[in-house]
């Protein structure tokens, strides 16, 4: 009996994602989108939600990050062995790309929960003897190459993925597209309706509706320019012949194949990933009904061993019922503080081993790590070094981390500026930029600092999830009011805001000077004094981060919303 056959007995939610992050050893993710996908799958397994996930097997990963002496990011391929983690299935599927047949194979990985729940994941791969050499490395790199490779990968994910599910006899209740990369699957479903696809017309609503009933779409991108769009001459050259261009133009825009529009048109449930992002998306896509389901994090994955022990002792059952964290006030202050100091000491030791730098465990430590995309403004806090030294000499230290996309020179410049300024600041305020931020580094980093800083340009942070990981470990957020923090923030209670309130925010993106002033002002007058002069007051904020943020902003709560709002309809 095939290893997958026991999963085909009941209908499943087929969850499609261009990236899935389960753990650092399986490097098939780049950042928040992939980690969210992994956390979603883990909570589905814990909650025994019948799901099957589909993604690509990136044999060379995203990339390993190194810094040259000048602080400029360099990349190298990640080497890993899929066969050490997953099992190759014998069944293959076929797609046509550039008029060539491309065979696709699938690797099966089972996410197993202590509750007994299990979610299988199919990692698709074209590195098969018999494929044209040019096609064998199509699935090598996540987000490598240009538009052409991206389209080919999205054909493999959407069309190839839907076909391999059918070939393996999976019964699919809903197709959940995590971002627009997977939306070509809708064309495969249209193809499988009773009418031959070349006779399908957008007015044949019956057939569109059959597909819509099966599809759920989660959008993650709050700006028009961020959505995948493929020119039709490229599409005509690359796409399988069974997809008629005229139909495509009717559905997904006359000028270019807009993957988001395709998913919007063919899904019965559409959502953004935080309340604010739902509203922003509604403005971007008038005419569609956009819901909001706020992202979460998988509680057990993102809790440091120190807090796992603490929660197990005082709130048993918390990992599968994170709502119990609301009772955090039953935990004595000293135990919260001691375990935080444990997580911090562990992280400082890790930094010492990696960089040779010794940070002081008694100094208020601010952490900032995420993809080094320019909108995240990683170097904002360094704009006025004199002011920062005035405020923080001897009282503050910083740890940074995050990768820039290999083609994003602006992102690499941000990293380089931070590294160079860190050298200038040495002796006044210590700053470290850690190499190769990934899920493993994040698991030590986020629980091991005292404050989690986030200052993206509004409204570009659709949700943000690293702040939820911080809250779970009693690390308060100091963040711009965007994404999930609009919902999680109570000023001075769960953490602190940066810049104007959401009500005051207009369309204008940025407002760096105002945000920066707020950062310096709150550090000086509120955060530093609280940390050094009122430890019980500080621990209160730590507890509120757990009891008022982490109990709610997790993927268990989120998955229950997907089930009740999207999956059972
Ligand atoms: C959680 C996580 C992210 C997402 O962080 P944001 O601040 O929400 O962008 C990115 N990278 C890694 C490795 C993570 O674990």
Label this structure with key terms:
39% helix, Rossmann fold, binds pyridoxal-5'-phosphate, 569 residues
Structural overview:
The protein is an alpha/beta fold. 39% of the residues lie in helices and 18% in strands. The protein contains 21 helices and 19 strands. It has helices at residues 32-46, 82-85, 133-136, 147-167, 185-191, 205-214, 232-238, 245-252, 259-265, 275-284, 299-302, 305-314, 333-355, 385-392, 409-425, 439-445, 466-472, 485-488, 512-533, 535-550, 555-567; strands at 12-17, 51-56, 64-67, 73-76, 87-97, 100-112, 118-125, 172-178, 215-218, 229-231, 256-258, 269-272, 290-292, 364-369, 396-401, 430-434, 451-454, 477-480, 495-498. It has a nine-stranded mixed β-sheet with strand order 5-6-7-2-1-8-9-12-13. The protein has a six-stranded parallel β-sheet with strand order 16-15-14-17-18-19, sandwiched between helices. α4 crosses α5 (185-191) and α17 (466-472) crosses α20. The model has no long low-confidence stretch (mean pLDDT 95). The structure holds pyridoxal-5'-phosphate.
